[in-house]
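Aim 2 progress update. The chain analyzed this quarter is reproduced below.
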Amino acid sequence: MPRFPTSPRVYEHLQRTTSVLAANEYAPIAPVIRVTAEDRDYDWVIYTDASDRGWGAICQNTHTQEVIALQKEWMDELQCGTYRGPTDEYQAFLFNKKHSAHAEPRAAREVLEYLKEIGRLVAGMRVALVTDHEAIVRAQRKLNGFGGIGRGTDLNLLYEMVYNWFHWDHLLVLFFYLPGPQNPADQLSRVIDSSNCGEIRRVQLNGRQLPTLRNCYCPLLEREVESILWG
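Predicted structure tokens:
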């Protein structure tokens, strides 16, 4: 059979790959990730929620007890002007069914990005993000037990960012679930101040009483209160 010409670069790549495999050097495994349901074990506990109007978040620094309320109105394809907004309970159901898979992870991502931009999140911190969107939380059980990937673009973008932070900045984000009616950010996502024209609005809420992580669900926790997760 005739032999097709092969570029010398192919042989170079094969030789480099073979050398690496032959050396059989060890690679460090991921560090141990401690998952608990104690607020004090995290630097920030963040509650997020999204609706057809926009998103809201309440962020508590567990060391300083600083509480920040954040809010943003959708100004693009999720904007009410495009969707026309839910007019009754059934329309609200249709919106949640169609758009929550994009709105909720996008809200979580924008909140985390904003807190990092203003210097509230820095390398080495531990963050517990609480959401009422179950898909975000359950995705942590995928990909070798830490983090997940799904069909939703915004869910993938959220986890891509979280992975990069964990790998490069040692900034850990874990996700917890809390039903919508108990989520303190629920009202912020529905009653929107439209004067900000899509900009993030920030208000200090120091002294606000918030639910604890003990009231939340995280699939990374075993039946005991806390467990050790090997990433």
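The chain has six helices and eight strands. Residues 101 and 152 are 7 Å apart (CA to CA). These observations will guide the mutagenesis experiments scheduled for the next reporting period.
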